[in-house]
Amino acid sequence: MAEEKATAEVEETTEATTQETAKETPKQDPQEFLENFNWEKYEQGIERVDDSKLKEFEDLVAENFVDTADEEVVEGTVVYLTDREAIIDINAKSEGVISLNEFRYNPNLKVGDKVEVLIDIREDKSGQLVLSHRKARTIKAWDRVNAAHDKEEIVSGFVKCRTKGGMIVDVFGIEAFLPGSQIDVKPIRDYDQYVNKTMEFKVVKINHEFKNVVVSHKALIEADIEEQKKEIISQLEKGQVLEGVVKNITSYGVFIDLGGVDGLVHITDLSWSRINHPNEVVELDREIECCNP
Fold it and tell me: Which terminus of the chain has fewer CB atoms gathered within 10 Å of its CB, N or C?
């Protein structure tokens, strides 16, 4: 009996000591562990680290830091802007830089904006992390273009330059073709007026084999005009005087833009006197009054 009592007292004492030790040793904060960890001693085998602490450290790194060796698109935050570059924070050991030329499609870029980037060079000659927004956009671009085409969504694009038969437009980082016939419902006489402008487009065709994308601005205008046309026609009355703009001149008359509806004024109705051609009395883009017969 004495031996059993002594054993019970030892077990109680051991349990109490263990509980006191657990209370006295609070769980170490992973951030504090990260800041105070001595890598030099660890690599030399001088200081042994508990496996649970190492696991906490690995989880902390995985949660808060980006592996700059990965060729994956990551999201970063614009933290500073200079005249030539954007400084991006991607939660790496240093911030990265991107030339502002890669953001020409987004002239309203500002501090705090979220942008997708790809790690281009882990360290340049000055030890700087170099990022690429253009490459990241290209990787993601095809998914976005296909989605916009399938869902008939409106996309924003930057008109880069003229080309044979139309314009080259930057859409999500992809160079898309904008045919001259798809710019506006009206004939275009000066294509250069659209260069370096950001406009809205609809993706009308994708050639996956040749990686070609065709966009249209005219399709958006036509959708608006169709609504306007219905409204205008519903309000037309016989004998009503209308104001319009000369849109096209032919040998037999002129077409007038009535704000969404095209009307034809025959050559015989252009003047009280006889004329050989409509351009004798009207000019393109001139405002005139006409009557609905």
Answer: N
Query: What is the per-residue pLDDT across 203-255, written as a single tens digit (0 to 9) for each?
Result: 999 988 888 899 999 988 888 877 777 777 777 777 777 788 888 889 888 88
Top pLDDT among 162 and 29 is at: 162
Residue found under tokens 């001693």:
41
Residue-level pLDDT at 12: 53
* Token code pair at residue 81: 């802007």
List all residues 6 or more positions away from 67 whose beta carbon is below 8 Å from its beta carbon: none
Can you tell me the distance from the alpha carbon of 286 to that of 279, in angstroms, rounded to the nearest whole number? 11
Asked if residue 119 lies in contact with residue 68, where contact means CB atoms within 8 angstroms, the answer is yes
Architecture of domain 74-136 in CATH?
Answer: Beta Barrel (2.40)
First to last CA, the chain: 124
Token pair of 175 as six digits = 């160079």
CATH class of 236-291: mainly beta
